Amino acid sequence: MEQWVVSAKKADFKGIAKKFGIDQVTARIIRNREVVGEQAVEEYLHGTLKNLHDPRQMKDIVRAAKLLREKISGKKRIRILGDYDIDGIQSVYILYSALSRCKAQVDYEIPDRITDGYGVNERLILQAASQGIDTILTCDNGIAAFEEISLARELGMTVVITDHHEIPYEEHEDGERVYKIPPADAVVNPKQPDCPYPFKNLCGAAVAFKLIQVLYQELGRSEEKAFLYLENAAFATVGDVMDLQGENRILVREGLKALNRTKNYGIRALALRCQIPPGGIKAYHIGFVLGPCLNASGRLDTAKRALMLLLAESAEEAEKYAGDLYDLNVSRKEMTEQGVLQAQEQVEHTRLKEDKVLVIYLPDCHESLAGIIAGRIREQYNRPVFVLTKSEEGVKGSGRSIEAYSMYEEMTKCKELFLKYGGHPMAAGLSLPEECVEPLRRKLNENTTLTDNDLRGKVVIDVPMPLDYITKELIQELNVLEPFGKANEKPVFADRNIRILSMRILGKNQNVCRMQVRSAGGSDFTAVYFGKTEQFLNYFKEKYGGNAVEQTLAGQGGMSVSFVYYPEIDTYLGRDNIQIIVKKYC
C-alpha cells in the first residue's frame, strides 16, 4: 500500500503569513514547494513579466538573433525544423509566425513521427540543400544531431539550434563527463554547461520565445510584439510537463491570462470544440484537454494539421481544423485504452512483474502511443517504464520515469544497444534493433540502484488539516497557488476519524461516489470520490463488512475513515457550498 507522509519542512509560518497577508496553511504549502526567502515568496505570489530573466544572458542567443537578422535583410531562405509534439508545434508556430512578420523568406518542416522519427535527420538536411535553403533553424530538437548538423554545414548551410533537451555526453572511467555539442553556427540551449542563463528548465517553445525577444530588439521592433507569443510558450510549458517553478511559473501564469483573451482563431476554436467556456482555460485544460488534441495530430496523422490550426486566418478555417483534431484525439483515446490493457496483461502474467524497470514490448501498438501507455503503466506500478513498438526500421519506444530514476542517465549506461536515444530524467525516446529488446530489459535491471522503498508509492500530505478548519475564504485564497502542475502540484490535506453518514454511486459510468460525512468536530460536509467506485466500496466491505456498506448506501452509515482531500466551493442553484474532493482513503 502507498505510504502517507506529511511534508515536514520548517519555516516561520506565522511570520510569513503575517508579512504576506495569507493563512498559515498557505504559507506551509508555499514552503513545501521549495520557495524559500522573502524575495522568492514575493515572486511566487506576485511575480510579473518584469521578473523574467533577460534573454540576452543565454549563450549564443545574441549571435543567433544577429545571424537571423542578416538572413532576413539578405532575403536568404530559412527553414525551421521542429518536432511533432505540443512543444515542437508551438515552437514552430512562434518562430514561423514571428519571422514571417519580419518579412523573412521562411518555411517549416515537421518530421513525420513514423517515417522520420524524432528530430533532425539526414533526409531533411539533404532535402533542404536540394531546395536551396540557406539556413536551418531548429526548435525543440537538434542538440543531439551531431552528424546531421555537420552534414548541413558541409553542404554550405548556416545552422542555428534552439533546444532545451539534455546535452549528450560521454562519461570517462574517472567519472568526468565530456559534452558533445553539434558544430552549429549558434547553439541556444540553457542546459549547456557554460551557459550563464540562471534558469535551466525552459521548454523548447520558451527558448524560441526568448530568441524572438532578442531578434525583435535587434530589428528595432517593440517588445510588446514579441510578447504576443507568451501564450504559446505558456501552452508548451504545461504541455511538455515542465516544472512550474521560478520563471516557468510566471510564464504560465501570465501566459494563461493571454490565452484567455487570445485573438488566435485556432486556440479559440479548439477551446469551443472542447466545451471550455470563454476565459476559462486553466493549466489543467492544456494538460488534459487542449494539449492532447494538438498531440493527437502528430501521433495519428501529421503535426502540420495542428500547426495549421494555429495559423488559421478565419474562424471558419479554424473550426474545421479544431473538429479534425478533436476527432483524432477521440480515436487516440480508444487506441490507448487497448494498449494499456495489453501492457497490463504482460506485467501481470510474465516475469516482468519481478523487474524494477519495466520494458514492455507491444509490437502491434501504434508507436505514437508508447509514451502515453508508459505513463499510465508507471502510475499503476510506480516503476520506470519503457514501452517499445515495432517500426519500419527495428523498434521504437518511449519511457516515463519516477523521481528516483534518471531515465537519460540510465540509458547512457547502455547506449551501445541504441540506434538513437535522448530525453530528460523523467522521459525519453529511443530506437534500437529488435534483437536488443531483451538485452535492454536485462541490462537496465542489472544496472539499477532502485530500492523497494523507491518503488513504494508515496502520498505526500501538505498539511494535516481538520475539515472544521476549512472556510470559503481559505479555499478562495488557495487560488493564489495556481497555476498547478509539475513541481507545483495542487495541494492536498488530510483528516482522520471522519464518519461516512451516507453514500451514493453516480455518473454514466458509475465512477462517482457522493457522500455526506461528519468531521470529528461534528460538522457535516459533502465529499466526492471520482474513480474506481467498485474498488472503493470493496475496501469498506473488507474493513466493516457488507452490511455496513449497504446501510451506508441506504443513508444510515457510520463507518470511520481517513481522507486525503482538496476542498473546493460547489456552486449549485446560485448557492455556494463547501465540498471536499477525496484523493486517497484509508
Structure description:
Among the domains are: 3-7 and 458-585, OB fold (Dihydrolipoamide Acetyltransferase, E2P) (Beta Barrel), CATH 2.40.50; 55-233, Alpha-Beta Complex (inorganic pyrophosphatase (n-terminal core)), CATH 3.90.1640; 350-447, Diaminopimelate Epimerase, Chain A, domain 1 (Roll). Strands 3-2-4-5-8 form a five-stranded parallel beta sheet, with helices on both faces. The longest helix is centred in the middle third of the chain and has 35 residues, at 315-349. A hairpin with a 2-residue loop joins strand 19 and strand 20. The N and C termini lie close together (10 Å). The protein has 586 residues and is an alpha/beta fold. The chain contains 21 helices and 20 strands.
Q: Gyration radius, to the nearest Å?
A: 25 Å
Determine the strand fraction and express it as a percent band.
Answer: 15-25%
Low-pLDDT runs: none
Q: Which sheet architecture does the biggest sheet show?
A: 5 strands, parallel
- Strand order, biggest sheet? 3-2-4-5-8
CATH topology of the domain at 55-233: inorganic pyrophosphatase (n-terminal core)
- First and last CA, distance: 10 Å
Rough shape?
globular
Keywords:
single chain; 586 residues; alpha/beta; OB fold (Dihydrolipoamide Acetyltransferase, E2P); inorganic pyrophosphatase (n-terminal core); Diaminopimelate Epimerase, Chain A, domain 1; five-stranded parallel beta sheet; five-stranded mixed beta sheet; 21 helices; 41% helix
